Amino acid sequence: MRTVRWVVAVLAVAVLLYTCALPGDLPADTDTTGGLVGTYTTNGVHPTGGEFGGTAIITDSDRAGVYTIDLIITGGIQRQTAVRSGDRLAVTWETVAAASDRPLTGTGDYVIEPDGRITGTWRVDGSDLDGTIELFPDA
C-alpha cells in the first residue's frame, strides 16, 4: 500500500510540473526573461528642439507586463510607468526631480526594436508638440 501511495504522489507531482510548464500559461507580453530589464544609454530631443542625454534604468514591477523606467537626463529625473503590449510600450511619466520648480507629467509611445533599442515619441501634458527618445541597451 505504501508503494502505491508513493507512485501516486510521484505521478501527481509530475503532472503538476508538466501542467505548469505548458506554453500559454502567461500572457505573451510578460517579460519572463527580463529582456527589457537593465540599464540603457538614452538621448532624445525635447518638443521645443533642445537635445538631452542620460541613463535609463528599467525594472520589473509586481504586475505582469508593467515596468518602471527611471530616466536620469540632463536637467532632471523622470519616473515612467510603461505597459507592454507586444513590441510597444504605452508610457506615462512624471518629473520627480528637475532644475525648474514646475513638475511635469506626460505620456509616450515607445517601440521595442528587434536589435534591443527602444525608440519613441513623448509629450508633455497640455502640449501639442512631440519629443523623441532612444534607449540603447548597455552591454
Task: Characterise the protein shown here.
With 139 residues, this protein is mainly beta. The chain has one helix and eight strands; from the N terminus they run αββββββββ. It has one helix at 2-20; strands at 38-45, 51-60, 66-73, 76-85, 88-98, 105-112, 118-124, 130-137. Strands 1-2-3-4-5-6-7-8 form an eight-stranded antiparallel beta barrel. The longest helix is centred in the N-terminal third of the chain and has 19 residues, at 2-20. The termini are far apart.
Secondary structure layout plus pairing:
Layout: H1 2-20, E1 38-45, E2 51-60, E3 66-73, E4 76-85, E5 88-98, E6 105-112, E7 118-124, E8 130-137
Antiparallel strand pairs: 1-2, 1-8, 2-3, 3-4, 4-5, 5-6, 6-7, 7-8
* Tally of separate helices: 1
Report the mean per-residue pLDDT as an integer: 79
Percent range of helical residues: 10-25%
SS strand fraction: over 45%
Going across the biggest sheet, name each strand in turn.
1-2-3-4-5-6-7-8
Classification by helices and strands:
mainly beta
User: What is the alpha-carbon Rg in Å?
Assistant: 21 Å
Helix and strand string, N-terminal first? HEEEEEEEE
Shape: globular
| Strand segment tally | 8
Parts with pLDDT < 50 across at least 5 consecutive residues: 1-34
Q: How is the main sheet built?
A: 8 strands, antiparallel, barrel
The first-to-last residue Cα distance is: 58 Å
Keywords:
mainly beta; 1 helix; 8 strands; disordered N terminus
